[in-house]
Design a protein that fits this description.
By secondary structure, the chain is an alpha+beta fold. The chain has 2 domains: 31-366, Metallo-dependent phosphatases (Purple Acid Phosphatase, chain A, domain 2); 373-651, 5'-nucleotidase,  domain 2 (Alpha-Beta Complex). It has 17 helices and 39 strands. The strands form 11 sheets. Strands 9, 10, 12, 13, 14, 15, 16 and 17 form an 8-stranded mixed β-sheet that branches. A 5-stranded mixed β-sheet has the order 29-24-33-27-34. It has a 4-stranded mixed β-sheet with strand order 4-1-18-19. Helix 4 packs across helix 12 and helix 13 packs across helix 17 (583-594). The protein is globular.
């Protein structure tokens, strides 16, 4: 039996009755409707299952997104199914394959198996495809029944991008056919080209340095797109695993989809990386972007959320122009797999497709056994409900484990006499992840699923050498998490919604206060916004004001040490130790070594007092169980908030 589902059989089994898209319904004899479907940032989410919580989830899973695919195909006369990268890593199933099962001859990676089942036409590489190293990546791609593209990661550079030797094919031209409004079938050549943030060279340096290089996304596109056109492509679609960022092109920018859309010859752009939805309010007001119409630089573009939460749709009305086709009209949609009810409960709009579940059933069961394996105990709860407003046990245990490990690694080296600090951030802290997106481990056994919950990414441990002044700047960058608060006013919103929680580093080993009455020195992207600002107060080491010239070793991860998050002074040049071990593995080893851990927050940071001032923040409703134990901040419950969150007031 073929792994690719037969479309006619699928529709017969579902009894689907759908209406044609207006483009298909009104196409003339020289016109054809082509629908482009996008998934992005799947991160191995095939089953609708939260392995960290060990329960079903109605908000994720390619098996759920699959239920949209055939209806979506049926609404259009002609359709292509495309993926936009970050499919290979991101949940415990990905880790189980990489660290336990491995990729051996004849084996297919489960997410690739699911994508083969659905008949994907093409994909591109995302930055997380590199997390497990190049041999693993190339072995996994060997099982794909579709091309996986990337034009700007190369094994050898030529004089210009078109002379490069790329790691995987830079582009492909799909030779397919379209049926026009008169029912006549015509050939069409669809050019697809893939891009990934060049920052992969920093984020996964241990896997990539000396083996590949990365080029700028926009410059690479400017070189390749004319070549794709010259080879006969009627239309060109960019698979851009890059976010929607600034409109002006800057060399080697991470989020380059806006200037990429401006490249001549590109007709449509698939975006991702940001884990957001486009079209929609997430990008309202962005330069060069129409967040309602779903266009970037006037061209149709889509971003389909993450983990299978949406199916992105770009509908193109094509018209024959001489011997080829051109785009004359377009529409864009991001279609969800669930809705939220008036009571903020999740209401699934689709059911899982059994063929997709069955394709990875064995791997799913093996992953469940993997994540349920106990490694030790905790005598205090580990949760992140208040991690953005107070020192926090879920961040504390990560810091403790990193410090424990790096102190051992520094022994006997030239850095052995330097004090070791540890920087860690909360990964699961609500936000766009929703009111259930928090770490929550009860007293008792700690299993691998709990460690993966504490530390979402397979980063590797790094140590950097910094001065006291650089510690201060590191914390100033983190302090951008908070809005500027007016002293004496009440109930102001505390958290900056554009600041990701994984960039809110807490540094253990020093004590400090954060004065939110002043502006943030650094913006949400790490740019200097207010050069004279100073939110970090009373920064001390061993009870004394920190010496700006004193040197420290800071335990962190490869992402941060290599420049991830654009923290001042962190660009890889001051790395003094690159561990072969992941942060997760170190946490597991630390728990095993301790037997029972006591990860109580030590309240080494707090807010500077502001008389007569109160602020508000929202967290998950289950945080009420721990509210009385929060140290260093005076909080009171305020009741339910929007989107299922619960609101608290902090008296500063």
């Amino acid at each position: 039996m073929s792994l690719t589902m037969n479309r006619r059989a699928f529709l017969a089994s579902t009894g689907a009755v759908v209406a044609l898209h207006p483009f298909s319904a009104r196409a003339q004899n020289n016109q054809a409707h082509l629908r482009l479907m996008e998934t992005t940032d799947l991160h191995v989410h095939v089953y609708p299952y939260d392995y960290y919580a060990d329960q079903q989830s109605d908000t994720v899973g390619l098996a759920r997104t699959a239920a949209l695919i055939e209806d979506v195909r049926s609404e259009a006369t002609n359709a292509l199914l495309l993926d936009n990268g970050d499919f290979l890593q991101g949940n415990p199933m990905g880790d189980w394959v990489a660290y336990e099962r491995g990729m051996h001859d004849g084996q297919t990676h489960p997410v690739i198996q699911a994508m083969n089942t659905l008949g994907f036409d093409a994909s591109c590489l995302g930055n997380h495809e590199f997390n497990y190293g190049l041999p693993f990546l190339l072995s996994a791609l060997g099982g794909a029944n579709f091309p996986v593209l990337c034009a700007n990661v190369v094994t050898s550079m030529g004089e210009d991008p078109t002379g490069d030797e790329t790691l995987v094919p830079p582009y492909t031209i799909l030779e397919t056919s379209v049926t026009d409004g008169a029912g006549e079938t015509h050939p069409i050549r669809v050019g697809l080209i893939g891009f990934v943030p060049p920052q992969v060279m920093q984020w996964d340096r241990q896997h990539l340095e000396g083996k590949v290089e990365a080029r700028d996304i926009v410059e690479t596109a400017r070189a390749y797109v004319p070549q794709i056109r010259a080879e006969g492509a009627d239309i060109v679609v960019a698979l851009s695993h890059s976010g929607i960022g600034p409109a002006q092109h800057e060399p080697m920018m991470e989020n380059a989809s806006v200037p990429l859309a401006a490249v001549d010859g590109i007709d449509a752009v698939m975006t991702g990386h940001h884990h957001r939805v486009f079209p929609g309010p997430d990008y309202a007001g962005a330069e060069g972007v129409d967040a309602d119409a779903g266009t970037i630089q006037g061209k149709p573009a889509v971003m389909a959320g993450f983990w299978g939460s949406h199916m992105g749709l770009i509908d193109l009305m094509l018209e024959r122009d001489g011997e080829g086709w051109r785009v004359v009209e377009a529409s864009v949609e991001a279609r969800p797999i669930y809705l939220r009810g008036e009571d903020r409960s999740v209401q699934p709009t689709v059911e899982s497709v059994e063929a997709v579940l069955e394709s990875v059933e064995e791997e799913h069961e093996a992953t469940l056994a993997y994540v349920r394996r106990a490694v030790g105990k905790t005598d205090a709860p580990l949760h992140s409900y208040f991690a953005l407003v107070a020192d926090d046990p879920s961040v504390q245990i990560v810091s403790n484990a990193q410090k424990w490990y790096i102190e051992q690694m520094m022994a006997g080296t030239e850095y052995a006499d330097l004090p070791v600090l540890s920087a860690a951030a909360p990964f699961k802290a609500g936000g766009r992840g929703g009111p259930d997106y928090y770490t929550d481990v009860e007293i008792g056994d700690v299993a691998i699923k709990n460690v993966a919950d504490l530390y979402l990414y397979p980063n590797t441990v790094r140590a950097v050498k910094v001065t006291g002044a650089e510690v201060r700047e590191w914390l100033e960058r983190s302090a951008g998490m908070f809005n500027q608060i007016t002293p004496g006013e009440t109930d102001q919103d505390l958290l900056n919604p554009d600041f990701p929680s994984y960039n809110f580093d807490v540094i253990d080993g020093v004590t400090y206060r954060i004065d939110v009455s002043g502006p943030a020195k650094y913006g949400s992207e790490g740019e200097v916004a207010n050069p004279d600002a100073n939110r970090i107060k009373d920064l001390s080491f061993e009870g004394k004001p920190i010496d700006d010239s004193r040197e420290f070793v800071v335990a962190t991860n490869n992402y941060r040490a290599g420049g991830g998050g654009n923290f001042p002074g962190l660009d890889g040049s001051n790395t003094v130790f690159e561990a072969p071990d992941t942060n997760r593995d170190v946490i597991v080893r630390y728990i095993v070594s301790q037997g029972t851990v006591s990860p109580r927050a030590d309240a080494n940071w707090s807010f500077a007092p502001l008389e007569g001032t109160t602020v508000l923040f929202d967290t998950g409703p289950l945080g009420m169980r721990y509210a009385d134990d929060v140290k260093g901040v005076e909080i009171e419950p305020m009741g339910e908030a929007q989107e299922g969150f619960y609101r608290y007031r902090i008296t500063l």
